[in-house]
From TrEMBL:
Assigned protein family: Belongs to the Mu gp47/PBSX XkdT family.
InterPro entries, per the entry: Barrel_Baseplate_J-like, Baseplate_J-like_C, Baseplate_J_M, Phage_Baseplate_Assmbl_Protein
Origin superkingdom: Bacteria
Organism annotation: Limnobaculum xujianqingii
Sequence ranges assigned to domain Baseplate protein J-like barrel in this UniProt record: 91-182
Identification of the protein by name: Baseplate J/gp47 family protein
Residues in Baseplate J-like C-terminal domain copies: 310-377
All residue ranges annotated as the Baseplate J-like central domain in the record: 203-291
A Pfam cross-reference name: Baseplate_J_M
Length: 378
């Protein structure tokens, strides 16, 4: 039977009753009497002690622990909180006068003020252009407790401006590829989920859960699915998602195997490459691991019965659909029509709605992951 912690009001009443019984007086204690004040002070101190004991009880198990106690419990399973990671872009285009140099560590600004540095010195070629790679500057954790790494992600084509003018170099540069890989400090809830996964599953030397735990340990990776023999006997496929990326959460990179593999298959790059490179020294030596991005499956919706749905209702429906896709979406899996009906039905303002399309369970092909398309109201 759980312990019922007394409230402050209950403690004050108990103290006053105890005082009266010991003093053997008739009537209640006066509001500002010495005995009344002392009993209230004692009740307040007792309430603080109960609160501290409650806090200690929470930290005594991995399931409820927080802060440094959560980190301690997780460390017993070699699970550590993922730090913020900086976004990078391998190809940024510069223009200017042939022979002009952009020094290493030159700072570039995005239009919202987020900054990046040039990874190595580049020289403008005879055609008046050159390319280089950049890395985002992570903000001070004191100013941004999330680490701010996710904010550094941006789409291909993003224009960057040199922080300091350089002779012979045009002030604006362009990200030829997407700026990706940035991730905030792992949230406490996500950290706890990974820790509990490790406690609930004893390492088996390379079973499905082992690969999932390894993939989720990579900064920026929020979801992972393991597929056996994806590319044939002896292979393991790992689909990953990086929710928060500019690309609707889909990883930025190309599918393939680790760069450390001697075999001549296509090497993975970007987010997929970071995952398989991390897993390489941990995996069984006989496995060939492929890092893969799910394939976006756009699903459009047609809803009748609520033609005049308000903006709030429409936003709620969109969020409900996204939640179903997030919780039930598995590459190559199935989205239940009933789940969509239940989720949409609890949104205020949807009474009488009819889900015209899709009108059955949504079966996904190999590697496909659902993405909400247009929602049309009739």
């Amino acid at each position: 039977m759980p312990f019922n912690r007394p409230t402050l009001t209950e403690l004050r009443e108990r103290n006053r009753s105890y005082m009266q019984s010991e003093l053997k007086t008739d009537g209640a204690l006066l509001r500002f009497s010495n005995m009344g004040v002392i009993s209230d002070v004692d009740a307040g101190m007792a309430h603080l002690h109960y609160g501290y004991l409650d806090y200690i009880a929470l930290q005594s198990t991995p399931y409820f622990s927080t802060d440094e106690y959560l980190a301690g419990w997780a460390a017993l399973k070699s699970i550590y909180r993922k730090a913020a990671s900086a976004a990078t872009c391998p190809t940024v285009s510069f223009n200017g006068t042939a022979g002009s140099i952009v020094p290493i560590s030159s700072v570039l600004n995005r239009n919202d003020g987020y900054q990046y540095t040039l990874d190595s010195e580049i020289r403008i070629g005879t055609d008046g252009s050159a390319v280089g790679s950049i890395t985002a500057i992570l903000p001070n954790p004191v100013d941004d407790t999330t680490g701010g790494g996710k904010k550094g992600n941006a789409d291909a084509g993003t224009v960057l401006t040199l922080d300091v003018a350089i002779s012979g170099i045009q002030s604006q540069a362009t990200a030829v590829e997407s700026i990706s890989g940035g991730a905030d400090i792992e949230t406490e809830d996500a950290f706890r989920t990974r820790m509990l996964l490790a406690y609930q599953n004893v390492p088996q030397g390379g079973n499905d859960t082992d690969y999932k735990i390894w993939a989720l340990s990579v900064p920026g990776v929020t979801r992972a699915w393991v597929v056996r023999r994806l590319m044939g006997a002896g292979t393991v496929g790992i689909y990953i998602m990086c929710d928060g990326n500019a690309n609707n959460g889909f990883p930025s990179g190309t599918d393939g195997i680790s760069q450390f593999e001697d075999w001549g298959a296509v090497k993975a790059t970007g987010d997929q490459g970071r995952v398989v490179d991390y897993i390489y020294p941990l995996q069984p030596v006989t496995a060939l691991v492929y890092g893969c991005s799910p394939i976006p499956k756009i699903i459009n919706f047609v809803i009748s019965g609520i033609p005049n749905a308000s903006n709030e209702t429409a936003a709620g429906i969109n969020a409900a659909i996204d939640e179903v896709f997030f919780s039930e979406g598995v590459p190559g899996g199935k989205i239940l029509w009933s789940s969509l009906l239940i989720s949409i039905g609890v949104v205020p303002g949807t009474a009488g709605f009819i889900l015209e399309s899709p009108d059955t369970n949504v079966q996904l092909s190999t590697g496909e992951l659902p993405v909400r398309g247009t929602v049309t109201y009739l």
